[in-house]
Design brief:
Strand content: 5-15%
Radius of gyration: 23 Å
Largest sheet: 8 strands, mixed
Helix content: 55-70%
Mean pLDDT: 88
Order of helices and strands: HEHEHEHEEHEHEHHEHHHHHHHHHH
Shape: globular
CATH architecture of one domain: Alpha-Beta Complex
Number of strands: 8
Oligomer: single chain
Structural class: alpha/beta
CATH superfamily of one domain: Spore Coat Polysaccharide Biosynthesis Protein SpsA, Chain A
CATH class of one domain: Alpha Beta
CATH topology of one domain: Spore Coat Polysaccharide Biosynthesis Protein SpsA, Chain A
Amino acid sequence: MFEVGNLHTIKSIVNTIVFALQYLLFPVFLYHFVISIFGWVKRKEADAEKYAPKHRFALLVAAHNEELVIGNIVRNLKNLDYPTDLYDVYVIADNCNDNTARIARENGAIVYERFDNKKRGKGYALQWMFRKLFAMEKSYDAVCVFDADNLVSPNFLKEMNKHLCMGHEVIQGYLDSKNPLDSLISGSYSITYWLNNRLFQLPRYYLGLSCAIGGTGFTVSTKVLKEIGWNATCLTEDLEFTIKLVLAGKKAYWSHKAVVYDEKPITLAQSWRQRKRWMQGQSDCACRYLKKLFAKFIRDKDLIAFDCALYLIQPLIIVISGVGLFANFLRFVLFTDLTQVISANGFIAALTLIITTYVGIIFVFMDGRANIKIILYYILFPFYNLTWIPIIIQGFIDKDQKEWSHTLHTRSMDLADLL
């Protein structure tokens, strides 16, 4: 009798957890799902050719020991479809002990070498370079930021010029992949970015919410940089700057036609290190800014701040979802009567999981990304997503560790090779 009663208690606890998590998560899932609907159909955009090139750009490439790829990005940027007298290419050789600086100069970049073993990382390097730019006699209307492993579509500056002419001060470009077919990991990364572009960034642009700065391929007007400052030096400087924009009453816009290709990690070990760093930075930002975002939402009835706050706690939602998944598994193990497992709520939860996981394949096909490998990767995509749960937990535990880790890039190719 004791064992039966004990089992009954366990069943009750598990049931309570499952239903509580379902009711807690459903509004969040519904919110993101409704937002994504506005990205299902792409609207016709203004033609960049209608806007005469008039804005002057400083193109910054942050590089740490990137001798294998730095030449490619510099040659690429030097040949964009935009008047060459209206932009300059700068490379920040940050704490380099290889040939990054020499190769960048040989390919036509203006190189600034920085050495600081205490303030390490891209955020500090950009902050240092912005001060250099502001002290120059030559002035720029906007700054574009890239990583050394990137390649950029020829129309990038034309699209950014268009957005600046439209009054947009911060613009994120479309983040694509150089190597989607290299491995299951690089393919899963690529799928994540494609879906994020179409179902997260694009609908927020259409709805007037703030898009998220993605770390590379973004443009910021010098006016905004001088007004609110950079000061984004955590492990996820892009997220921190996005939050600073929102708190200052500004937002990031989206350019679906200005494409930036970057190199995705190939192995799980590389991916784990990179994503852990992202989660460390996001946990750090959540601890420092979440309260301010919700306060701005309540005080100013600012939906942009509310949306940004939800984005900030997305890792927590993923972990809670993982707990719910495990609790549902326990229900399946504990209950011998399947009718108790396949309840209406359980059916809805399972159907929602399937739809949110696999409906994205439609947009992969619509955007012309699908082939046999990508379809196979998409079938296995949920297993990649499950790895986020321990990474998020580990990142939160180590959120106070500020040691920046470098991702090695080896995919040396020019834009012509990629296209």
